[in-house]
Amino acid sequence: MMDNLRTAANSVVLKVIFGIIIVSFILTGVSAT
To answer: How distant, in Å, are the alpha carbons of 3, 18, 19, 22, 30 from that of 26?
Structure first.
């Protein structure tokens, strides 16, 4: 049970980090043009 919670939390954290990186790239690309 705890392993499932840990893997779920890790996947959510990874998704949030990737989302922030993608948004920052989009914002910098829009501001650069």
So the answer is: 34, 12, 11, 6, 6
Paired tokens of 1: 């049970």
Q: Which of 10-30 are b and which e, b meaning 16 or more Cβ less than 10 Å from the residue's Cβ?
A: eeeeeeeeeeeeeeeeeeeee
Local structure of 1: helix, strand or coil: coil
Q: How far is CA 6 from CA 11, 20, 25, 26, in A?
A: 9, 21, 29, 30
Model pTM above 0.70 = no
Q: Which two tokens stand for residue 11?
A: 């996947």
Average pLDDT score over the chain: 88
